[in-house]
């Protein structure tokens, strides 16, 4: 009897080992498929967005490139990571390559985030099927597609936050050594956007209140992680203190008290990648439960702790721009699918295949829809911003006609921000930092003597001729500058818009005399 029992145990052990090996091989195959899928996604969306836009997105793109040129420890809206990620683009002298880098960096970040979603969902559910479901549900969130290309910071959160949660679960329940990369990643995410502080605070609360996680404080690893976090964050805190905490003022000034229905709509849109699958699966008969695994429960609590107060705050103090609510919340929506799938009881294989095909189809529809809108120039989307690009190149040609030196400085109206990018000399913006105005884009280390020596090109407001143009505001900031000549060029924001006059004012470099008017 004892021998038979021993043989039964051995057979069970062999069967268990065989199952473990088979599961490992299946996971490896699915991981390979994921890498192929993500690589194809990044290449396809990078190629599409680069070819389907005649100009880079306006404000956020200019801010990112400007902050990269400054390469300071902070920016008026976020930390230093946004500028650091865009800095490699400045090493290229080609406008085309810089533009391509903008789109590639965004979708490469999205791809890294998608892999993080897979890893997190797989760790929480131990199911490759549910992990795939979490990745494909991201197609319902435009933060990984059409919206990603326009943001200078949200795509970094899409990249970092899933991995931040994954490292938190691994550090708290698998190996405390994961606190080291968690601390570094938390610091980097904070320097992408300060909303990361909400998740870091939530992790801190959980580690203190949960006995299992509280044991981490007995290990040195968590203190190394804390050290790396502050190493990344403290230089920015010093920068904020030196600049009157400009980022906090910007957020506070953008809020207004009062309920707004548009805020509720923005919140629903931000979490559509969770809400829509939930109702669809519920109607199909799938049921949900509080996850049986402690790591999954901890991850959900970590997400809910900061999210609920943020939602309440945004409903009481909505921003002046409702679309900004969706912009801020979409990174939180990226964390929803891997946490959502951990609550699913079971999905029959036949239904899983239907869900897989449906979500994949939605991703293809997003791609085809965007390509169609751009290809047909729907609502003038293709040519948006092209006027500033043309004006920048034209203005530089005028400068080279008049003077023998390169164009070093461009200033004036907001049109100069975009135009400066498309001048192949890549001039700096003639805008210094001001503690009172706190501009989003500016140039560090501007010296009046250097500007006077190099000269500058000033751009007026579109629609105002040189006879009525007023450059007194910028000349008041730079009293040593004197306009030597003015010239009008035609300007249209896009080919379908009416042509307006745009006045250019030239401040000649020292020892140079401007040529007479009449270029072209």
Q: Choose one word for the global shape.
A: globular
> Which oligomeric form is depicted?
single chain
Rounded radius of gyration (Å)? 27 Å
Order of helices and strands: HHHHHHHHHHHHHHHHHEHEHEHEE
Query: Which residue ranges are poorly predicted, with pLDDT under 50 across at least 5 consecutive positions?
Result: 11-22, 516-520
Global mean pLDDT: 87
Count of helices? 20
Content of β-strand: under 5%
DSSP helix fraction: 55-70%
Give the N-to-C terminal Cα separation. Answer: 104 Å
**Helix/sheet category:** mainly alpha
Characterize the biggest β-sheet.
Answer: 5 strands, mixed
**Strand ordering within the main sheet:** 2-1-3-5-4
Describe the structure.
63% of the residues lie in helices and 5% in strands. With 520 residues, the protein is mainly alpha-helical. It has a 5-stranded mixed β-sheet with strand order 2-1-3-5-4. A hairpin with an 8-residue loop joins β4 (485-491) and β5. α3 crosses α4 and α14 (294-316) packs antiparallel against α15. The longest helix has 50 residues, at 2-51. Residues 11-22 and 516-520 have low confidence and may be disordered.
């Amino acid at each position: 009897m004892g021998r038979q029992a021993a043989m039964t145990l051995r057979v069970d052990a062999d069967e268990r080992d065989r199952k473990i090996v088979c599961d490992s091989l299946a996971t490896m195959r699915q991981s390979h498929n994921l890498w192929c899928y993500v690589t194809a996604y990044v290449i396809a969306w990078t190629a599409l967005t680069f070819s389907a836009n005649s100009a880079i997105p306006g404000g956020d793109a200019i801010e990112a490139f400007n902050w990269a040129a400054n390469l300071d420890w902070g920016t008026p809206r976020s930390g230093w990571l946004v500028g650091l990620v865009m800095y490699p683009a400045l090493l290229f002298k080609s406008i085309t390559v810089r533009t391509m880098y903008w789109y590639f960096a965004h979708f490469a970040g999205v791809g890294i985030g998608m892999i993080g979603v897979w890893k997190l969902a797989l760790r929480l559910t131990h199911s490759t099927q549910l992990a795939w479901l979490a990745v494909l549900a991201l197609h319902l969130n435009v933060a990984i597609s059409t919206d990603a290309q326009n943001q200078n910071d949200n795509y970094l959160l899409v990249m970092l936050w899933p991995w931040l949660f994954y490292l938190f679960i691994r550090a708290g329940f698998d190996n405390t050594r994961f606190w080291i990369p968690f601390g570094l990643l938390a610091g980097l995410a904070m320097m992408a956007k300060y909303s990361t502080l909400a998740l870091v605070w939530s992790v801190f609360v959980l580690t203190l209140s949960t006995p299992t996680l509280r044991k981490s404080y007995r290990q040195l690893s968590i203190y190394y992680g804390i050290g790396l976090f502050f190493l990344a964050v403290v230089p920015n805190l010093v920068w904020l203190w030196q600049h009157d905490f400009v980022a906090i003022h910007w957020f506070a000034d953008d809020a207004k008290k009062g309920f707004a229905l548009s805020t509720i709509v923005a919140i629903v849109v931000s979490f559509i990648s969770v809400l829509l699958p939930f109702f669809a699966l519920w109607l199909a008969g799938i049921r949900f439960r509080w996850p049986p695994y402690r790591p999954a429960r901890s991850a959900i609590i970590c997400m809910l702790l900061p999210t609920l107060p943020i939602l309440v705050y945004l409903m009481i103090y909505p921003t002046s721009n409702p679309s900004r609510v969706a912009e801020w919340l979409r990174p939180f929506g990226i964390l929803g699918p891997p946490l959502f799938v951990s609550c699913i009881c079971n999905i029959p294989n036949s239904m899983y295949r239907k869900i897989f095909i449906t979500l994949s189809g939605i991703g293809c529809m997003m791609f085809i829809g965007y390509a169609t809108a751009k290809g047909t120039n729907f609502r003038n989307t293709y040519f948006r911003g092209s006027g500033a690009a043309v004006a920048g190149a034209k203005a530089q040609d005028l400068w080279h006609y008049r003077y023998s030196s390169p164009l070093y400085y461009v200033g004036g109206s907001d049109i100069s921000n975009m135009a400066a990018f498309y001048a192949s000399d890549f001039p700096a913006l003639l805008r210094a930092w001001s503690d009172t105005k706190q501009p989003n884009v500016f140039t560090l280390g501007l010296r009046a003597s250097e500007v006077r020596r190099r000269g500058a090109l000033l751009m007026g407001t579109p629609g105002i001729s040189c006879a009525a143009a007023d450059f007194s505001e910028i000349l008041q900031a730079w009293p040593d500058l004197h306009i030597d000549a003015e010239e009008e060029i035609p300007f249209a924001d896009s080919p379908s818009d009416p042509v307006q006059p745009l006045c250019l004012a030239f401040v000649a470099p020292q020892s140079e005399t401007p040529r007479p008017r009449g270029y072209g």
